[in-house]
Structure formats: C-alpha cells, structure tokens
C-alpha cells in the first residue's frame, strides 16, 4: 500500500488545526518534533502520543503554578532549602522540616512563628507558602496591617462579605508581621473574623514579634485577643525562634572584628526556642 503524500500533508495540517482548536497549543507547537522523533527512534503510536500529551500537561502545570504564584503575592522566592539552619540555632530544624511536609494543611492546623525581627519568620512562612502553591493549592500572603486596611476599605465600599470570602478562600493564608504596628480601629475585629471563619476549615500561618503572653496588650482588647488565640492555638504548631538576627549578621561580623581588634570577645549567640501546641 502506498501513502499519498498530499493526504498525509493534509492529515498533518488537520492534526495541528485540531490541537490548536482544542487550545493544546504546546502540543501543536511540538507536533513536528515529536513526529520526527517518533520516526527516527521508531516510537510506537502509544509512545508518540504519550510524549505529545506529556508536553501539553507539563506546560499546563507550569502555567497553573505561575498563576497560583502570581495570586499568592509572596514577598520573596525563598524555599526551605534556602534556609540556613546552621546560622539560626534558635529554630527547631526538625519541627520546620516536619512543617515542610505540609501535613498541617490536611488538619487545617495553624502555624505561628514567634520571635524578634530578622530571625527568618517571614522567610520560613514564605517557604511554606511556596511549597503549598507548588503542591497545587491556593495560597495568599498578606501582612496584618494590609489585611486590616483591605477589610477597612471593603467595609467603607460595602464589599465586606466579598472581602471575607476572599480571605476564607485560600487553602493557606499567611498573615505576616502581626504586632509590628498597632492595628487601626476595626483592624483587630477584622483579623478576628478572618481567623474565625477559617477556623477548622483551612490553615493560617501567622508571624509575630509579640510573645503569646503579650497579645492582649498588642491588641488593646483583651477579649478579642483571647478569642483569637483560642481559635489560632486550638490546633497549631508554635515555632519560637529565639536566635540571632540574620539581617544583623553582617553588621555583627563587622562589629566582632572591630571588637576583636579592640581586644574584646565577640558576643555569644542567643539560645534555643520552639514548642508544640495541639
Ligand atoms: P523576620 O521576618 O523574622 O524579621 P526575615 O525572614 O525577614 O526575618 O529575614 C531577614 C532576612 O534574612 C531575609 O532576607 C531572609 O531571607 C534572611 N534570613 C533570615 N534567616 C535566614 C537563615 N537562617 N538562612 C538564610 N537567610 C536567612
Ligand atoms: Mg518578617
């Protein structure tokens, strides 16, 4: 049997057009290459189809991840692998590596990073958020001040319910920097409502420089603080990071050199932190 080159050419054009019509653009683009490889390597029909569709699936996955990451508004590219545990003796490495398995998402459990500035709270929260996005779930990163401002604006514009639905949506919500600035008037109650509606449904990661015992003071309202802590801590991992500031490491090194030159000993690193509440 002879193949008619004209009908073969038409078939190829049709195939490309079908792929384009179905919006399988990456497959359409790679059709030629895959057919070449199929011919040169003697691939079976199944193997050739598998290769073609694999190209489309990978491209779709990459697009979806990029869109989840755009939505997430992460403040940096960090992953757990970027975190230098040796430089931060104040964090429990096993605890963080366990969190990085993302088991906590299945229990809708929360994570609190508590510690002074510069110890890596934002970096670790971001790394867990990135891992979650890479695992296929929706993530949103915000600061406490920004969340309060968004809710305040939504209330003024009559979009309160939409705003609450927005913060209830993501599988993981990161609220960074609670306690750095006093929350504006209705900020504490907005934050409480966000935490409350996510309670037992989906996970929230919170970073704060305020020790849990001092929350009442940080919120101005002891009742709201207690109610919020109640929900946050009911099912939570608390990661205390009580170590040296990574940000100040370079400065520390310079000052240690200067001090050594002046005949003083360098300052010792601070101690351990880390506890588990469930
Ligand atoms: P915090 O939120 O506790 O104030 P950050 O997470 O913002 O601290 O960390 C401050 C800076 O130092 C960031 O650029 C972060 O990437 C870096 N950093 C902090 N801890 C580490 C660490 N253990 N390994 C690598 N980089 C770190
Ligand atoms: Mg921070």
UniProtKB/TrEMBL annotation:
Keywords: ATP-binding, Nucleotide-binding. SMART domains: AAA (SM00382). This is IS21-like element helper ATPase IstB. The keyword ATP-binding applies. SUPFAM superfamilies: P-loop containing nucleoside triphosphate hydrolases. CDD domains: AAA. Belongs to the IS21/IS1162 putative ATP-binding protein family. It comes from Actinomycetospora straminea. Residues 257-278 are annotated as: Disordered. It holds the Pfam family IstB_IS21. Residues 107-239 form the AAA+ ATPase domain. It comes from the Bacteria. The gene is istB. Residues 259-270 have a biased composition (Low complexity).
């Amino acid at each position: 049997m002879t193949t008619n080159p004209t009908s073969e050419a038409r078939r190829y054009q049709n195939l490309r057009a079908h792929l384009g019509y179905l919006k399988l653009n990456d497959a359409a683009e790679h059709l030629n290459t895959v057919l070449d490889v199929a011919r040169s390597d003697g691939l079976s029909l199944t193997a050739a189809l598998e290769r073609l569709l694999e190209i489309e699936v990978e491209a779709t996955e990459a697009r979806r991840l990029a869109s989840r990451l755009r939505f997430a508004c992460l403040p940096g590219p960090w992953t757990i692998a970027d975190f230098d545990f040796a430089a931060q003796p104040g964090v429990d490495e096993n605890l963080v590596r366990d969190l990085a398995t993302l088991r906590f998402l299945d229990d809708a459990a929360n994570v609190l990073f508590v510690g002074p500035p510069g110890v890596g709270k934002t970096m670790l929260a971001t790394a867990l958020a990135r891992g979650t996005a890479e695992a296929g779930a929706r993530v949103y990163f915000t600061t406490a001040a920004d969340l309060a401002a968004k809710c305040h604006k939504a209330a003024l514009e009559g979009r309160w319910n939409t705003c609450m639905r927005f913060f209830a949506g993501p599988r993981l919500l990161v609220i960074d920097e609670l306690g750095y600035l006093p929350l504006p008037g209705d900020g504490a109650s907005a934050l409480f409502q966000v935490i409350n509606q996510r309670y037992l449904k989906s996970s929230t990661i919170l970073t704060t420089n305020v020790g849990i015992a001092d929350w009442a003071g940080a919120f101005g309202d002891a009742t709201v603080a207690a109610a919020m802590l109640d929900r946050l801590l009911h099912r939570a991992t608390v990661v205390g990071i009580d170590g040296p500031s990574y940000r100040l490491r370079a400065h520390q090194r310079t000052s240690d050199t200067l001090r050594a030159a002046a005949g003083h000993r360098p300052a010792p690193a601070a101690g351990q932190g880390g506890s588990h509440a469930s």
